[in-house]
Design a protein that fits this description.
Blueprint (H helix, E strand, L loop, with lengths): L5 H6 L3 H10 L1 H6 L8 H7 L6 H10 L2 H6 L1 H12 L10 H10 L3 H11 L5 H10 L4 H4 L7 E3 L2 H12 L5 E4 L4 E5 L6
Antiparallel strand pairs: 1-3, 2-3
Helix pairs in contact: 4-5, 7-8, 7-9, 8-9, 8-10, 9-12
């Protein structure tokens, strides 16, 4: 039996073996993190391993925010984890939030994350995120026009807080199963 220690970890050959060995012993790492030398790239690889989301959240908390914003694939990995977890929106900086929302590969995850994190973003940051999302969401950040969103629970939440924050003029639920956003015609 191999004991999990900094020495045994360093002696393993092959990155896949190291990730698997580390993932199987993650709680021992969390008990003494300063004993191990791992970098943010290795932490990001652990995010795709078969570990619990609680453990992934701990690892995300250890990753340098600048690493997340500079590595869009890492931001994309983090998005779904944050989406399915109970989180404090204020725990993450606005640059990380923007990178995670914009780079998540699923439109549904993007909208859900934006709804979760909107309180931690300024109005300009919300507009910036919307501009980085696919149509019709990017159209919501553009003056004039009436973009239509699919009628989903998350889109209703989105429209509601956008109106509350005065980022859109109004919205209406259409009888055809959509939501029409009424943008301001000019900056107020």
């Amino acid at each position: 039996m191999v004991v999990f220690s900094p020495d045994s970890f360093e002696q393993l050959e092959g990155e896949n073996h190291r990730v698997l060995f580390f993932a199987m012993n993650l709680e021992a790492y969390f008990a003494a993190p300063d004993s191990f030398t791992i970098d943010d790239d290795f932490r990001a690889r652990l995010l795709t391993s078969q570990i619990a989301d609680e453990q992934k959240l701990k690892l995300i908390g250890e990753i340098d925010p600048e690493f997340v914003t500079a590595n869009l694939s890492v931001a994309a990995k983090i998005g779904p984890i944050l989406d399915r977890s109970e989180i404090d929106p204020g725990k993450y900086g606005s640059e990380v939030i923007q990178a995670v929302v914009v780079n998540s590969t699923s439109e549904d995850v993007q909208v859900s994350l934006l709804n979760k994190f909107q309180t931690a973003l300024s109005d300009d940051e919300v507009r910036h995120v919307l501009k980085g999302m696919p149509d019709p969401y990017r159209d919501v950040a553009t003056l004039g026009g009436w973009p239509r969103l699919k009628e989903t629970v998350e889109n209703k939440k989105l429209a509601s807080w956008l109106k509350e924050r005065n980022l859109i003029s109004s919205y209406s639920e259409l009888g055809l199963g959509g939501i029409r956003i009424n943008n301001f015609r000019k900056e107020s």
